[in-house]
Amino acid sequence: MNPAQLTKMVNDIAAFFASESGEEQAVTDVSGHLQRFWDPRMRREIVAHYARGGEGLNELSKKAVAALAKASQ
Fold first, then answer.
1. Is 0.90 surpassed by the pTM of this model?
2. Which of 11, 17, 47, 59 could cysteine-pair with 29, CB 3.0–4.6 Å?
């Protein structure tokens, strides 16, 4: 999948969770959502995109993808 599309999807998910639970809890919720509902290829691609600088990811999305990357190690 294209990194721009994955970025858009993560930013949309982050916006939803931020509005529901606030930023701190949203980081946990977004990374959990990615872990549960995204296939491994999508997770690897978004983590790789983040590792290359994460162009287009908002701050909440960056934090959530960083948490996902750490949990995947």
1. yes
2. 17
